[in-house]
TrEMBL record, chain B:
Species for this entry: Streptomyces fildesensis
Location of the NIF system FeS cluster assembly NifU N-terminal domain: 6-129
Superkingdom of this protein's organism: Bacteria
InterPro entries named among the record's database cross-references: NIF_FeS_clus_asmbl_NifU_N (IPR002871)
Stored Pfam families: NifU_N
Name under which the protein is recorded: Fe-S cluster assembly sulfur transfer protein SufU
Coiled-coil features, chain-numbered ranges: none
């Protein structure tokens, strides 16, 4: 095998992830290839969570005591870290949520309750794509049902890319919001942001980018993207579960109405009415996920110290190798781009007529963790006429040897059901 | 190897050579899905009084769900409804046993080939696959009966 270029020092990195040493099924070392579902967490993040609870735990924004001040500083410090990580012009544009799904739902609800010029109603249209995660489909179906707005979407090409040939018919003067994923969680496709943002801006539509599968894997610059909102989730980027992010442009966050009401998000409250705190607090009702935000801050520090450009290069090399090796497996068909160009490290495939469930089970027996099913992107399976896929997804700690283990594992699957 | 406890020969046989597959005439039809993995089944039942004349089905899914549909067809077609319901109950009990139930002779007598699914009950993610067709059959039967009542 020729050595791959741009690989990280995975031997060193893997020492930070205790779980990667886990043995399963009588002494087989785990090969964790389900990173698109959730990433593993480095010791640095686990330590930050522990230190927070052991040394600083208090509620935020309301106490005058030492612990309350420390907890607030840590929570708000995490916001600064995330803002820097995505190159946000202002820290006040970073809203903490519980996950990407909540971030996406939050935008849908802001727009549903907004006044002109943002209001989504029966005269207007919403645009998504056929490769969205269910979390970026269902909130728009709900909004469409509640407001009467028409829901439209971009279809897919046979090779797993967005079909933008009818972009001028899909995004029109009636479009209020275009919401799409930067990287597909099922096919790995990296979508052409510029073309979509340009068209949306031409017609005055807002743009929401679902960066759940991008933020963990590549440098993310919300200003360069040109979108109005960007959503992602902490647990896929080395952070804990229970923390997500919504970035939004300041003017919009000032204009748009809150969704959830509660403590933290108000300025004054009387029995008749209330006034709201400025963003981001306006959108963070109730006690936030404090420890989880602190954990995400630690994750951001961890990823930044390694370098998002280096992580991207590593994953590109692994993806190139994995695609090549997988295509050598007889009867294997990749669902999605069949080169590493403009694709991330989530690779879905079908193996002859062996059902993905069975593929995943036999791989699991060998200690190889993959995801099987429709990956919360059922329309993609329908589009390609398959019931489900097997998906292997890689991250900064993935190695070429793990790709080899997968390929050998698939050989075993073929023998078992052959 | 542990895998063999799940993928018994009997199961793989039914998977490769399914019994009664294909949709035929029926009194009621249901479509059931397993939302976590995309397994699907469309199933029809045909009753004659209290006797099950036919259970026909079409679907896509893993070896476990497909084999289970085949075994179910074999076990219930030609039976009296109340008898078949009993078989279903015993199968459900086995599948919910988390691998802790060692099928005895009495159970084996009732379940016949379906006893091979005992190993599947150890795998929580797969129990739903094994139950999909049975749940569809139960649902279709209930519909056929209630339609008959209202007719
Ligand atoms: C592209 C994409 N969007 C949204 C989500 C939803 O993330 P969460 O479940 O953390 O809300 C996921 C995660 O599965 C995803 O891959």
């Amino acid at each position: 095998m020729t050595p791959l270029h741009g690989l990280l020092d995975t031997e060193a990195i893997r020492k930070d992830f205790p779980i990667l040493d886990r043995m399963v099924h009588d002494g087989k070392k785990i090969v964790y290839l389900d990173n698109a579902a959730t990433s593993q967490k480095p010791r640095q993040v686990l330590d930050a969570l522990n230190a927070y609870y052991e040394q600083h735990n208090a509620n935020v924004h309301r106490g005058v005591h030492v612990l309350a001040e420390e907890a607030t500083a840590l929570y708000e410090g995490a916001r600064d870290k995330v803002a820097a990580f995505i190159n946000a012009p202002s820290r006040d544009e970073v809203i903490f949520t519980k996950n990407a799904s909540e971030s996406l739902n939050l935008v849908a609800n802001m727009l549903g309750w907004a006044d002109e010029p943002y209001r989504v109603d029966r005269e207007t249209e919403i645009v998504i794509t056929e490769m969205e995660h269910h979390s970026n489909i269902v909130p728009w179906q709900l909004l469409s049902q509640r407001t009467g707005a028409k829901l439209k979407w971009f279809g897919l090409t046979d090779d797993g890319r967005l079909d933008l040939s009818d972009i001028d018919q899909v995004i029109t003067e009636k479009t209020k919001i275009v919401s799409f994923t930067l990287v597909s969680n099922i096919m790995g496709t990296i979508n052409p942001v510029d073309a979509i943002v340009r068209r949306a801006q031409d017609v005055g539509a807002l743009v929401l980018i679902d960066a759940s599968q991008a933020a963990p894997h590549m440098p993310l610059d919300v200003q360069a993207l040109g979108a109005d909102f960007v959503a992602f989730t902490g647990h896929k980027m080395c952070g804990p579960t229970g923390i997500g992010v919504l970035w939004g442009r300041q003017e919009l966050l000032e204009d748009l109405p809150p969704f959830l009401g509660g403590g933290e998000m108000i300025e004054t409250v009387s029995m008749h009415s209330s006034t709201y705190a400025p963003a981001p607090h306006k959108f963070e009702a109730g006690t936030p996920p404090i420890a989880q935000a602190v954990g995400l801050g630690a994750a951001v520090d961890y990823l930044t110290a390694i370098g998002m450009d280096k992580i991207e290069a590593h994953e590109h090399a692994i993806t190139e190798y994995a695609v090549k090796r997988l295509l050598e497996v007889p009867d294997l068909r990749i669902i999605g781009p069949t080169t590493a160009e403009d694709r991330g490290a989530a690779i879905s495939f079908v193996l002859g007529d062996i059902h993905p469930h069975d593929v995943g089970q036999v791989l699991d027996e060998q200690g190889i963790a993959v995801r099987v099913g429709h990956h919360c992107a059922r329309p993609v399976c329908l589009r390609y006429g398959i019931p489900a896929t097997t998906r292997a997804s890689f991250y900064l700690y993935s190695t070429p040897a793990e790709v080899d283990a997968l390929v050998e594992g698939l050989e075993h699957v073929r023998n078992f059901f052959g | 190897m542990k895998l063999d406890s799940m993928y018994q020969e009997v199961i793989l046989d039914h998977y490769k050579h399914p019994h009664g597959r294909g949709l035929r005439d029926g009194d009621a039809e249901v479509h059931h899905v397993n939302p976590t993995c995309g397994d699907e089944i469309t199933l029809r039942v045909k009753l004659d009084g209290s006797k099950i004349v036919d259970v026909s089905y079409e679907g896509q899914g893993c070896s476990i769900s497909q084999a289970s549909a085949s075994v179910m067809n074999e076990l219930v077609v030609g039976r009296e409804l109340d008898e078949a319901m009993k078989v279903q109950e015993v199968f459900l009990e086995l599948m919910q046993s988390k691998g802790k139930l060692e099928p005895d002779d009495a159970m084996e007598e009732v379940l016949e080939d379906a006893v091979a699914f005992a190993g599947v009950s150890k795998y929580p993610a797969r129990v739903k696959c094994a139950l999909l067709s049975w749940m569809a059959w139960k649902d279709a039967t209930a519909q056929a009966l209630s339609e008959r009542e209202s007719a």
